[in-house]
Design brief:
The chain is α/β, with parallel strands linked by helices. It contains 22 helices and eight strands.
């Protein structure tokens, strides 16, 4: 018995076209929608006419009146986007039930009707449980299937330097070696340990030529150590858990998109399917591609050694600081500002070779490649530890290197957090500054102190011969600039070094 022929609206056809353009196979879409391959092929063949018809009908559609329960509307939309980011299908009754729950928590009556939900869907172009234009879940399969069937179509459009990967990692920035066992395996979802952690968003392109400025997320909105600091080497954000959120990610992405738009540039950005990575609409210069769920351990280039290299470089700097403080007989204290400075320098030390090899190891070959090399060419913390004068157990270094490997960087948003965000109740400053009483204010060195310091360095290099001529010349010229500025001040009130550096 022949089944009745299934018809699609212009909007549904447009969405099918979008899915094919995003790399999905004809057969997978046909199977999901319960139609023959030829039906999808006809839609694809007529894509230009369908797109034009869809755009025309959209422009002619009447403007929907705004919701009378705008706070419920916005809170429900955020909740819906989070669920879809997790590939959870949402039906009309579920939307209605959740809307009434949110309304009740906002002090409104539970009177959200199915008609209100229908208007909600129309306002936000939600069809079949998805926001129009949202990428469907990647077809279930092993990573090789995605690399063989989806990736090549994306790969053909962008050169190596225009393909990026971004991911978050958590780090116990104050962690000294003797505390390793206490922190090992800690996921840190709150409590005392949360103030000793940061979340870092890392992004880099395929050939390692563009390592994006790090985003660092802390617990305190205004750490005391930030006082007198005019410019940070990273983008700093904060929330109560020091976690990435969908709003922070979307804001970061839109700023990058605007930057690219001004340059008339376009890139491909690959991210994983976590709750903090929503589908961000109306991007003009960034094509956002989600890696298949549960495959990031093998498909995510940053997880193949780039993030590890960043953390190893950070901990090398921290250990050397501890050794120096021991020599000087003082306690090692690491502020958020210290951590940010060391993270930025550690990121600069990650080589393009490491980045390229990690993309190769994940299966993303360079355009001229035929061979996959090892994941990371930089030395591990254990290997580096062998160079120290005092022998240290290699098991210790392995534990220290991996201690925050599984640190949580995001989580599903609770209703309370969602409503707080919707109502703009930004009380983080009041609640979080108390958690950073140990961070001391940093007084920038004076110009006089800077002159003495650079003079000491130049004298050291002169008598020890531990630098090449180019390095010596740079330092000697810097000493001359400092001295000239000092003498020009003619014993006036001492100038902060930060003010001087602005002028030079």
């Amino acid at each position: 018995m022949a089944s009745s022929r299934k018809t699609f609206t212009i909007e549904e056809k447009s969405h099918i076209i979008w899915r094919i353009e995003n790399g999905e196979a004809n057969r997978d879409i046909a199977k999901e929608l319960g139609v023959g391959h030829s039906t999808i092929s006809v839609i694809w063949k007529n894509r230009d006419k369908i797109k034009q018809s869809f755009e025309t009908s959209s422009m002619k559609s009447k403007k929907l009146r705004p919701s009378q329960n705008n706070d419920v509307d916005q809170a429900l939309l955020k909740w819906f986007k989070i669920q879809r980011a997790n590939n959870i299908p949402i039906s009309g009754p579920i939307l209605q039930s959740k809307a009434n729950d949110l309304a009740e928590k906002l002090g409104r009556p539970r009177d959200i009707t199915s008609a209100w939900i229908q208007r909600f869907r129309q306002r936000h172009a939600i069809t079949s449980g998805r926001i129009s234009g949202e990428a469907a879940a990647v077809p279930t399969g092993i990573p090789e299937d995605w690399l063989n069937n989806v990736w090549p179509k994306l790969r053909d459009i962008y050169p190596d330097e225009k393909i990026y990967n971004a991911d978050e990692t958590g780090i116990f920035f104050k962690l000294t070696p003797e505390k390793t066992l206490r922190f090992k395996g800690e996921k840190c979802t709150g409590g005392k340990l949360s103030k000793d952690r940061l979340t870092v968003l890392v992004a880099v392109n395929m050939d390692g030529s563009d390592k994006r400025k790090l985003m660092v997320i802390g617990k305190s909105a205004k750490p005391r150590c930030f006082k007198n600091v005019n410019l940070l080497p990273v983008t700093y954000e904060s929330n109560k858990r020091a976690w990435m959120t969908s709003e922070l990610f979307a804001s970061w992405l839109r700023k990058w998109d605007n930057e690219l738009k001004l340059k008339n540039d376009k890139i491909l950005l690959m991210v994983d399917n976590c709750p903090a990575h929503p589908h961000v609409e109306n991007l003009t210069s960034i094509k956002l591609v989600f890696l298949p769920p549960n495959t990031t351990s093998v498909l995510q280039p940053l997880d193949q050694g780039v993030i590890r290299s960043l953390k190893v470089n950070y901990r090398k700097r921290l250990i050397l600081q501890i050794i120096q403080d021991l020599d000087e007989g003082c306690e090692t204290k690491v502020s958020v500002l210290d951590a940010i400075t060391m993270l930025e320098r550690a990121w600069n030390e990650v080589t393009s070779i490491t980045v390229k090899n990690c993309f190769r190891h994940a299966g993303f070959l360079m355009q001229s490649d035929n061979i996959i090399e090892s994941a990371c060419t930089e030395e591990s913390l254990q290997e580096w530890g062998r160079s120290l004068a005092q022998p240290v157990s290699q098991d210790f270094f392995e534990e220290y290197e991996e201690v925050d490997k599984d640190l949580e960087t995001t989580a599903a948003v609770s209703d309370e957090e969602l409503l707080t965000s919707t109502l703009r109740e930004e009380d983080d400053v009041t609640n979080t500054e108390k958690d950073n009483d140990n961070d001391e204010e940093i007084n920038p060195p004076t110009l006089t102190e800077a002159c003495k310091a650079i003079k000491t360095i130049c004298q050291f290099l002169s008598v020890t011969n531990t630098a090449d001529e180019a390095t010596k010349n740079v330092l000697f010229n810097l000493e001359k600039q400092f001295q000239t500025s000092y003498y020009n001040s003619k014993c006036k009130k001492q100038t902060k070094i930060t003010d001087f550096l602005k002028k030079t």
